Amino acid sequence: MPARLVVLVSGSGTNLQALLDAAADPGYGAEVVAVGADRPGIEGLARAERAGVPTFVLRVADCESRAAWDAELSRLVAEHEPDLVVLAGFMKLVGESFLARHGGRVVNTHPALSPSFPGMHGPADALAYGVKVTGATLFVVDAGVDTGQIVAQTTVPVEDDDDVDTLHERIKVAERTMLVESVGRMAREGFTVDGRRVRLGR
Ligand code: GAR
User: Fold this and answer.
1) pTM above 0.85?
2) Would residue 80 count as lying in a domain?
3) Which is the closest atom of ligand 1 to the Cα of 168?
4) Most buried of the four, 18, 61, 132, 159, by CB within 10 Å?
């Protein structure tokens, strides 16, 4: 049985697309069973619909509180009985209810080399700092901002003439490969978390 992935998105969904493409091969070992978003009308949802994957949308503005949104999001995700929840460009922090229900099997991909440059502006912050190498980090989500245990990292150079868009695009190319490889291995081989360290395989 392939592992069941629920993927949460907020934007263009190119990381989601990479997972959908990989999962088309039965040997990949995982299938995307649902895609959720915190906003309607985004390309990420359109990609899911084109692939015939069920979608759901839950806006914070439609809930009584942020905590109510988090609890309802958690419930919607649980309906699809995921083995792994993948935050792929999901621009919201999940909260207590979500982690109580799904914690330990939620991963997020971040466009910087953790622990550097956490938060919403990883590529811009790396560029402003002047680092020569940056990249992307896949991590197990905890209650902090991009602080969870690291599953995988990939690096790219920062070029002298980069702006935020060119740098982020270069990161995203490497990020998609890392995400597909790592999620596939997590699905096929399992993983363990020991303190700060994540080990793939049984
Ligand atoms: C990705 O680079 C992802 O790491 C980043 O948004 C991009 C989404 O691209 N996520 C964050 O910055 C989360 N803090 P995509 O929608 O094309 O997959």
Assistant:
1) yes
2) yes
3) 2
4) 18
